[in-house]
Amino acid sequence: MKVLTCPSARLDLAQAEQLFGLWQAAARNDDVTLDLSGVTSADSSALALILETLRAAGSAGHRVSVAHLPASLHGLAALYGLGPWLGRLEGNTAA
């Protein structure tokens, strides 16, 4: 399992665009854990990045888990109706 991190405390559109290709490639080649322990704030592009990483992994038969999800993402996930989906990824593995 490969652990992927965000090098910035803020996971916004600019950061998501930088991480997109790296996270997609990793998810296509191995199971991944998205370690967001360094992220203190995030916007909806972070949810999109996680979802696209999950899709890439699933299409290749790999799994994704999320560790240390920031509180701001919990709120956004609930707003978009993704709370249960994101909860399944947090601390677990899902394809």
Automatic annotation (TrEMBL):
It holds the Pfam family STAS_2. Gene3D superfamilies: STAS domain. InterPro entries: MlaB-like_STAS, STAS_dom, STAS_dom_sf. Transmembrane segments: none annotated. Residues 1-95 form the STAS domain. This is Phospholipid transport system transporter-binding protein. The lineage of its organism: Bacteria, Pseudomonadati, Pseudomonadota, Betaproteobacteria, Neisseriales.
